[in-house]
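R.M. (postdoc): so does anyone remember the format we settled on? I'll just put the structure tokens first.
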């Protein structure tokens, strides 16, 4: 299989400190790849090497099958990069900055201007067009940096914690945009330390911890572990709880703050799934919530990292 990004034994030392260990990334075409790991794991260091802003100590990087950093100029024509620390051009207006970036990428003035307008509206800073970069909030700056990554309609996006400064609504909008960009056929490599966000926007994941890739692959394939711990809420929890307590396949069941936690013998999951809704319907009880207690990706993380949380 041809990968859009592929690294072989990618390794980085800062002085004597080994920060990245033999990373073998494989990013297939058309996926949204979540590069997930805690603070200090090595995400930014890896991304800087992928975009040739930092030299590997050793190892190979191929993007579109071409060698990085040797083929940097050619590769970066088709890459939109959103760095962790955005934009240095503090005295430019957003509009001028985006036109300038468009010109740098080889667009004629008219085309660059038209694209700048479209992108400002797309990322939600159209009304701020004539504000200087230094006058923007960090979330607004992040939106402008996202716009600049989209200049020239690149086929690969490399985004380093693109939602870090966005407000909750901004995050939801951003995730929607990533999903539609992926539908257009782009490959998106995006770092994050927020599990729920990766679950919403990515179909691939690479888990990095202390400079090592711990797991990589399609989220659906990685998360096929039997679930046996559920959160349940109904319009009559007392009755529902009594029903569950009597079932031989229920190992433990208790109520916490309006939510019933039920742990089931996974061999008899089908019985729970068939009998419980039937019982609720017969009693006229409404089911309000039924979901695995931890999300599939969280379970993988607990297994691989040996901890409950990667970040927030
Ligand atoms: N220029 C540098 N010199 C020395 N050490 C560095 C340098 N840059 C990063 N490091 C170290 O490398 C490790 C990985 O840093 P990196 O910025 O890649 O992490 P990250 O996964 O992006 O974290 P975050 O989620 O906080 O952005 C950290 O321990 C950091 O201290
Ligand atoms: Mg980082």
């Amino acid at each position: 299989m041809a990968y859009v990004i592929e690294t072989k034994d990618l390794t980085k030392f800062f002085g004597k400190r080994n920060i990245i260990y033999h990373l073998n990334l494989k990013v297939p075409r058309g996926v949204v790849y979540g590069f997930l790991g805690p603070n200090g794991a090595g995400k930014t260091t890896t991304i800087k090497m992928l975009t040739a802003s930092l030299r590997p100590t050793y190892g190979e990087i191929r993007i579109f099958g071409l060698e990085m950093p040797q083929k940097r100029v050619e590769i970066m024509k088709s890459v939109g990069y959103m760095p962790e620390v955005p934009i240095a051009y503090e005295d430019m207006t957003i509009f001028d900055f985006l036109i300038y970036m468009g010109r740098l990428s080889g667009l004629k003035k008219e085309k660059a201007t038209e694209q700048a307008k479209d992108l400002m509206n797309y990322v939600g800073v159209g009304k701020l067009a004539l504000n200087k970069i230094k006058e923007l909030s960090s979330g607004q700056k992040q939106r402008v940096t996202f716009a600049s990554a989209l200049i020239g309609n690149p086929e690969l996006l490399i985004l380093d914690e693109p939602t870090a400064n966005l407000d909750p609504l901004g995050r939801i909008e951003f995730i929607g945009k990533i999903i539609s960009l992926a539908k257009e056929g782009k490959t998106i490599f995006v770092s994050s330390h927020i599990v729920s966000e990766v679950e919403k926007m990515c179909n691939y994941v690479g888990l990095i911890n202390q400079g090592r890739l711990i797991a990589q692959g399609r989220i659906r394939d990685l998360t096929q572990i039997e679930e046996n711990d559920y959160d349940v809420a109904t319009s009559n929890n007392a009755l529902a709880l009594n029903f569950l307590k009597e079932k031989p396949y229920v190992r433990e069941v208790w109520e916490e703050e309006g939510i019933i936690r039920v742990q089931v013998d996974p061999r008899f999951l089908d019985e729970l799934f068939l009998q419980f809704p039937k019982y609720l319907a017969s009693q006229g009880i409404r089911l309000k919530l039924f979901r695995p207690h931890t999300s599939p990706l969280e379970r993988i993380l607990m297994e691989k990292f040996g901890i409950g949380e990667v970040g927030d």
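R.M.: ...and that's the designed sequence above, right after the tokens. Also worth knowing: Confidence is low (pLDDT under 50) at residues 308-312. The longest helix spans residues 168-183.
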